[in-house]
Amino acid sequence: MRGKLSSMALLVGAYAAVLAGRLYLTALPPINSTDLLRYVGFGRQFWRYGLAIYGQTPRAFGDVPYADLWPDLPFIYPAVALLFFAGTSAILPNLLFPRLVLTAIELLNALLAARLTRSRLFGLIYFLNPVSLWWYSREGQYEPLVALLCLAALLALEHRSRLSVALVALGIQAKYWPGALMPTFLRREWRPRAYVYAALALLPSLAFLVAGQYVLGALTNPAMARNCNPYTWFPWDPSRTCWTPGWHLTLNAIATYGMLAAAMLAWVTEPKRLAAIADYLPLVVFLVYLKSSSWATAWYLPMCAVFALPIRRPWLRWAILLLGCLEPIAWAGLAGRPIGWLNPDPPWQYVWGLIP
C-alpha cells in the first residue's frame, strides 16, 4: 500500500511540475505564429456577425489588431472551432485565457490517453510532449480541442456508448482529421441510433451552412501559401518545404517515415491482419494526409499518438508517441533559443490586456 501511495505521489508531482511549466508558457506571448490573435479576433467578431461570420474577412473588421493578419482570409476552420473561440473570447478576450483552457484540455487529454492505454506513464509523457508544451500552451494552437473529441469518442466506443460517433462528428467540426477514425467506428459501432446522434451533432455546421458562406469559408483557403510542407514525401525538394533547414527535414522524415514503418511492421505481424486493418487506417490515413498536404505545420505531430490509440499494440503506441516528440522548433523554443519564423512584434499587450 505504501509503495502504491509513493508511486501515486510521484505521478501527481510530475503532472504538477509539467502543469506549472505550461502555465508559465501561457503567460508569455506567442512568437512562432500569429494564429491565436486571429482566432480570438474571429471569436470576438462572431458576436457581431453571428452565423454570417464565415462571409467576413479581417479587412472588414476595422481598426483592430488582427485586421492586418491575413486580411483577405476568412475563418477557414469548421463550426466547433469557431464556437470554441467565440466562447473563450466572450469570457475573457485576451491571449492568456484560451491558452489556459487549451492547457487544461491537454491535461484532460493526458488522463484520457492514460485511461485508454491503461498506462499512467503514457499519459504523463503525452502531457510532457515538448511539441504540445510549445505549440499548444505557448503558441495557442487548438489541436487539444480536436484531440479531446477524438479521445472522448474512443473512450465512449470502449463503453459502447451511442454518443461515440456523435463525438467524432463534433471532432470533424473542430478540424476534419477526426474523420480518419471512421473506419474503426464503422467496424465496431453498427447500431443505427448511434449515427442518428452523429447526425444531430452536425447541427452547428448546419446552422452556419443555412445562414452564410460556411462551405466556401471553411473548405477553401485561397490566401494560404502552397507547397509549404516540411513533412512532405520529398524532403530534398526545397520548392515543397518553404526552404526549411536540412536538419529539420531530417528529423521530420525520421518522425513520419518512422511512424509509417512502425505501423507497417505492427500490421504485418498481426495474427489477424485483415480484421485489424480498420484500426490501423486512422493513423495511416492521417500520416498520408500529413505528408501529402501542400500545407502542414509542426503542431500536427502530437495528433499521431491519438490516431494510434485504436491499435491494440502497446509498443506501437509508444513508438508513435515518442516519434511525435521529434520537432526541432518546439525543443529550441523550450531551450530558450527560438528558431523558425519569429514574430518581430510579439503581442505582449494582449497576453493580459483585452483584445477589441
3D architecture notes:
The chain is an all-alpha fold and 356 residues long. Helix content is 62%, strand content 0%. α1 (2-26) crosses α6 (130-138), α4 runs antiparallel to α5 and α13 runs antiparallel to α14.
Main beta sheet strand tally, sense and closure: none
Number of strands: 0
Total of DSSP H or I helical runs spanning 4+ residues: 18
* Quaternary class: single chain
Unreliable parts? none
Order of helices and strands: HHHHHHHHHHHHHHHHHH
Helix and strand content put the structural class at mainly alpha
Q: Determine the mean pLDDT.
A: 93
Helix share bin:
55-70%
Which tags fit this structure?
356 residues; 0% strand; mainly alpha; 18 helices
Produce a short descriptive summary.
With 356 residues, the chain is mainly alpha-helical. It has helices at 2-26, 35-49, 79-91, 96-117, 120-128, 130-138, 143-158, 164-172, 182-188, 192-201, 203-211, 214-219, 246-268, 273-292, 303-308, 314-323, 328-334, 349-352.
Strand-helix topology:
Elements: H1 2-26, H2 35-49, H3 79-91, H4 96-117, H5 120-128, H6 130-138, H7 143-158, H8 164-172, H9 182-188, H10 192-201, H11 203-211, H12 214-219, H13 246-268, H14 273-292, H15 303-308, H16 314-323, H17 328-334, H18 349-352
Helix pairs in contact: 1-4, 1-5, 1-6, 2-3, 4-5, 4-6, 4-7, 6-17, 7-8, 8-10, 9-14, 13-14, 13-16
